Amino acid sequence: MASSRRLRALITNDDGIDSPGLWALADATRDAGFDVVVAAPHRDASGVGASVFAVRGEDGVAVHPRELPGLDGVPAYAVEGHPSFIVYASGRGWLEPKPDLVVSGINLGANVGRSVLHSGTVGAALTAGLQGWYGLAVSLDTGWTPPEHPHWEAATAGLPEVFDLLLSRDPGTVLSYNAPDVDPAALRELREAELAEFGTAQVVVEHREAGPGGATHGTLRSSLHEVGEQPSPTSDVGLLAAGHPTVTELRSVAAVPGVLGGVVVTSAH
Question: pTM for this structure?
Answer without folding.
Answer: 0.90
